[in-house]
């Protein structure tokens, strides 16, 4: 049943990692994969060539996301990648066109992807090979990123293009707004006798 050749024996550990990883929680999974302890990797995330992945602290990767690090992949601190995302660092397009789509084809093209710190990549987005995403950039859900993304910008669409630029002053203002709203919600919840276990308080009818 099991093949005993070089390719099969090389791929088998990755298959085992996927199986074991599905039994772990998000923090345990990150540690099992040798990623920073502050990183969280959700279920069914697949990492191709994990030895070529560099991931910073306090990152989060959602369910069913594929991180292809075969061409080199760098993800900065405090970056989140949503559900069902695809990050590609290689392409077999030319191998297909030339009818040379065999294992080990020298027509496979690889280019690194760099995702900066403080980025937010919305669910179901695709990042193509060779792309650099600047610090604190936002990728809207369902976007296809085919070229570099400037820092402190929001991009959206297929292909993605810049819709908004922002700066630290804007982000501080938004942070102050959300903290104030959460503090008010927390106070109302405590007045109702509710105990907040962790994280931001959930909205209630009183918050409408």
UniProtKB/TrEMBL annotation:
The record's keywords, sorted A to Z, are: Acyltransferase, Transferase
Question: Where are the residues of the annotated region Disordered?
Answer: 186-208
The record's listing under Pfam families reads: Hexapep_2 (PF14602)
Cite the SUPFAM superfamilies for this sequence.
Trimeric LpxA-like enzymes (SSF51161)
Q: Does the keyword DNA damage apply?
A: no
Concerning InterPro entries, the annotation shows: Hexapep, Hexapeptide_acetyltransf, Trimer_LpxA-like_sf
Any single GO molecular-function term of the entry would be: acyltransferase activity
What highest taxon heads this organism's lineage?
Answer: Bacteria
The record's family statement is:
Belongs to the transferase hexapeptide repeat family.
Name of the protein = Acyltransferase
Q: What is the organism field in this record?
A: Micromonospora musae
